[in-house]
Backbone:
């Protein structure tokens, strides 16, 4: 598979690439990285499932997210199996700032709230994909192979979220039609970029630049 070609639109969608300082930290703390990766897969499945229940009138969303839930839970199981194989015990980790900061951008009225949630989902999946791609050549062969295996599904998840956001914007009447879907994408891209490039005291899968490197 041509991973560079697969990743080109993903990286183009994001506002920045992962800083080297974060990659260095990740390679030195693979136990935290893997544990938080497992947490992220479980949270991604939960988020998609919640959307399916909350917006059960939107049939396209149901179909796409049902597939995403299955894949996220499969990935969760796979990461747990890798951890077990490596003798790594489960540990409780506090959440980083990333997801919470992005959720603050969600508007409080519909359908704009759903659009924002879907756009944020696209950025989360795209960032995950970009980090797997950047980490793959830097970690051990087994883990690198697994991260490359994830690229196809993660890139599709980002595309699915983005497609759903565009479909909602086209289908339902917006309270402020002057603000386009592209405006929201551009805004959330900037927020996400700042989270990735700014100093962060807590190392997690989606954290920013480690504070000691800032």
Residues:
């Amino acid at each position: 598979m041509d991973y560079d070609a697969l990743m080109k639109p993903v990286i183009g969608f994001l506002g920045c690439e992962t800083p080297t300082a974060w990659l260095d930290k990740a390679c030195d703390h693979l136990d935290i990285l893997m544990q938080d990766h497992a947490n992220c897969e479980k949270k991604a499945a939960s988020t998609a499932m919640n959307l399916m229940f909350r917006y059960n009138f939107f049939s396209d969303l149901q179909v796409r997210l049902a597939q995403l839930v299955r894949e996220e839970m499969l990935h969760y199981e796979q990461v747990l199996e890798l951890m077990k194989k490596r003798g790594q015990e489960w540990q409780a980790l506090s959440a980083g700032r990333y997801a919470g900061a992005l959720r603050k951008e969600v508007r409080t009225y519909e359908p704009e709230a759903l659009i924002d949630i879907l756009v944020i989902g696209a950025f989360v999946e795209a960032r995950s994909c970009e980090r797997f791609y950047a980490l793959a050549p830097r970690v051990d062969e087994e883990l690198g192979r697994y991260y490359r295996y994830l690229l196809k599904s993660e890139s599709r998840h980002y595309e699915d979220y983005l497609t759903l956001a565009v479909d909602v914007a086209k289908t339902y009447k917006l309270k402020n039609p002057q603000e386009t879907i592209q405006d929201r994408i551009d805004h959330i891209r900037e927020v996400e970029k700042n989270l990735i490039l700014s100093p962060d005291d807590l190392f997690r899968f989606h954290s920013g630049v480690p504070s000691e490197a800032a």
